[in-house]
Design a protein that fits this description.
mainly alpha; Methane Monooxygenase Hydroxylase, Chain G, domain 1; 2 domains; two-stranded antiparallel sheet; 8 helices
Length: 284
């Protein structure tokens, strides 16, 4: 076979293959068009109404979720302000001034409960609250932290789960039925909120030690030890990244309070010796 014949035959074979590919591709396109038109169906009016209702329900859920998130932000902001106010009790020298600060904090707690938390309970009334729990559990953690800090300052006791449950139950007096409103409180949210109070207690203890009031710092370290032992008793029942992180932070806060008390105790033991040396040198 000559060189020209070989080129002609190779070109023909190439064109034939390309033509077969095109014809097959065009046939498949025609078949798809026939099959799609053959099995095509239209939605009935009832089905269209169902999808419209689904859209409305999803929009209502998103809007409700955003309203709860906004209320949660307001709760967090107000609780942080209350915590800041409670820290001011260290700078007040008189017992009357401390009582006045605590009464004002209690008043602000009632405003948070009766306005913000009640409104959140209204939004969640007769609904599956665990569907919206991620929109408000972070606010409850901050509320529990502030409430636990307040209870320690007033009584030195641990905030109980039942006390928070009672604070999250309301009666809607705006309606004739006086229906009961409430907010679900997962146990993990309560425990996380108590974890957060460790940082506030650490700041309070260091401030008290710096001002020479070691008795309050000793009460704080005993409180934190008891709370940490209770968490350690749970073991690995709750094993999440957030739980592990907060547990480590609480432990670090406890160690800082203990170190502050150890240093204060060492200084207290050294002070009489220094005073005795000064007196001896004076007498000589």
């Amino acid at each position: 076979m000559s060189k020209a014949q070989a080129q002609t035959s190779s070109g023909k074979s190439y064109n034939r293959g390309q033509g077969r590919y095109k014809r097959g591709h065009d046939n498949s396109t025609d078949d798809d068009g026939v099959s799609s038109s053959r099995y095509q169906r239209t939605f009935t009016d009832e089905e269209k109404n169902d999808f419209v209702n689904y859209q409305k329900e999803m929009d209502e859920r998103r809007d409700r979720y955003e309203r709860i998130v906004k209320l949660s932000r307001d709760v967090i902001i107000e609780c942080k302000r209350i915590i800041f106010q409670l820290h001011r009790t260290v700078t007040v020298n008189t017992s009357e001034g401390k009582e006045e600060l605590l009464k004002e904090a209690d008043k602000r707690f009632n405003e948070v409960r009766n306005k913000l938390l009640r409104q959140m309970a209204k939004e969640l009334c007769y609904l599956d609250q665990y569907y919206y729990v991620k929109s408000y559990d972070w606010a409850l953690e901050e509320y529990i932290e502030a409430l636990a800090f307040y209870k320690f300052l007033t009584s030195g006791e641990v905030l109980l789960y039942s006390e928070v449950i009672d604070a999250l139950q309301f009666v809607d007096a705006d309606t004739e039925e006086n229906k009961k409103l409430y907010m679900e409180l997962p146990e993990i949210t309560y425990l996380m909120g108590l974890f957060d109070v460790g940082g506030e207690l650490m700041r309070l203890a260091i401030s008290e030690v710096s001002s020479g009031n070691s008795e309050t710092a000793v009460n704080i370290v005993n409180y934190m030890r008891l709370l940490y032992e209770s968490y350690e008793f749970l073991g690995n029942i709750i094993h999440t990244a957030e739980w592990t992180k907060k547990s480590q932070v609480f432990r670090d806060c406890l160690m800082k309070v203990e170190n502050a008390l150890y240093k204060w105790k060492i200084r207290e033991n050294d002070m009489p010796t220094e005073a005795a040396n000064i007196q001896t040198n004076t007498s000589i």
